[in-house]
Amino acid sequence: MRVFNTLTRQKEEFKTVQEGKAGIYVCGPTVYDFIHIGNARPMIVFDTLRRYLEYKGLEVNYVSNFTDVDDKIIKRANEMGVDSTEISEKYIAECKKDMEALNVRPATTHPQATKEIPDMIKMIEDLIEMGHAYEKNGTVYFRVRSFKDYGKLSHKNIDDLESGHRDEKHALKVSGESEKEDPLDFVLWKPKKEGEPFWQSPWGEGRPGWHLECSVMSKKYIGGTLDIHAGGEDLIFPHHENEIAQSEAANGTTFANYWMHNGFLKIDNVKMSKSLGNFFTVRDICKKYDPQVLRFFMLTAQYRSPLNFSDDLMEAAKTGLLRITNSAKSLKDIINSNVSDKAVYDEEAAKAVDCYVKKFEDAMDDDLNTADAISAIFELVKFANTKAKEGINSDYAKNLYDTLNKLADVLGLKCEVKEEILDADILALIEERTAAKKNKDFARADAIRDELLSKGIILKDTREGVKWQRA
Question: Which of 96, 295, 444, 470 is most buried when burial is the number of CB atoms within 10 A of its CB?
Answer without folding.
Answer: 295
